[in-house]
Write a structure and sequence with these properties.
With about 140 residues, the protein is α+β, with helices and mostly antiparallel strands. It has three helices and six strands; from the N terminus they run αββαβαβββ. The chain has a six-stranded mixed β-sheet, sandwiched between helices. Helix 2 packs across helix 3.
């Protein structure tokens, strides 16, 4: 099993994850909002699911991630990211969707890049690798 993102993070991956943070920070003005699962390419083609129900079991979460991954363009290595309010410390919702994403990726033989995103940064829930910004601006 791949342990997640490790330092040094590849420049292309770092740029994509920065874009995920920037898009989230500029598109979600509310302080309190439901977590959202994104699968695809930050700043590009992606599928988004609002996670308003908390009583979804592991099998259903895995099926959801697998369905979202199956709609990724051929040859693409989609990123899975969870946007949510709060700090980037590991929370139950992070662990639940990480387990589902791992299971879905194992089923289809894909590598998994998954991070948790808030308005100020991202964090890989497996390795703890993270980036943060005080003021994030478009380049």
């Amino acid at each position: 099993m791949v342990p997640g993102l490790l330092e040094p993070v590849a420049p292309r991956t770092a740029a994509l994850l920065r874009r995920a943070v920037l898009d989230h920070a500029t598109s979600e003005p509310r302080r309190s909002f439901p977590a959202r699962l994104h699968v695809g390419t930050p700043g590009g083609s992606q599928r988004v699911l609002a996670l308003e129900q908390e009583d979804v079991d592991h099998s259903l979460r895995t099926d959801v991630v697998a369905a979202m991954l199956s709609r990724a363009p051929a040859g693409a290595e989609p990123v899975v990211w969870l946007t949510r309010p709060g700090e980037l410390d590991l929370q139950d919702v992070d662990a639940q969707w990480l387990a589902a994403a791992l299971a879905a990726c194992v089923e289809v033989g894909r590598p998994l890049t998954m991070v948790v995103v808030n308005r100020h940064g991202w964090r890989d829930p497996r390795s703890g690798t993270a980036r943060g910004w005080r003021r994030l601006r478009r380049r």
